[in-house]
UniProtKB/TrEMBL annotation:
Keywords: Membrane, Transmembrane, Transmembrane helix. This is Uncharacterized protein. The chain crosses the membrane at residues 20-37, 57-74, 108-126, 138-157. It comes from the Bacteria.
Amino acid sequence: MLNMKTQGDAILKKFVQKKLLLYIIPNVIFNTVIPYLTLRNLGPVYLFQGEYCFARFLLPMALFLPFIITFDMLRKTIILSEEGKAGFVLPDDFSKNRFMFKMAGQNGFASLVVLLLMMLCVHLNVPKGYGFDAASLSLILGVVAGTLTVISTLWPIKKVKELSH
């Protein structure tokens, strides 16, 4: 039994590492390059003003990226557990779909609220009419995308493993 759990943990660890790389590389690249190419010739970029404001890129990403990654990781981890390859077993009365949608929604909503509050704090503390450099905002967007990807990949695994105890 101990060997089975260790083997399951190794499979789960390899699975998580593979998925993390698969998620983080395109998210960081796309969420850095696309805003940069869009904003680079526009001069100063504002947080909430204008057709190409920073909020237009950040807020949808803050909601949808954690939702989609969390849902996908939960779905694949639960399938791995049902196949007996994850190193843990979920309870018999476990409601998969409800849990997946609830956790994905909570992660998406929480990241949206946190980033919106951070943007509002910055907006309220910079001088009126202050614009930001497009390259800097693009890099910030890439870092935020990478951070959300890591959190949205690892947090669901932790929560599912807690259910099995």
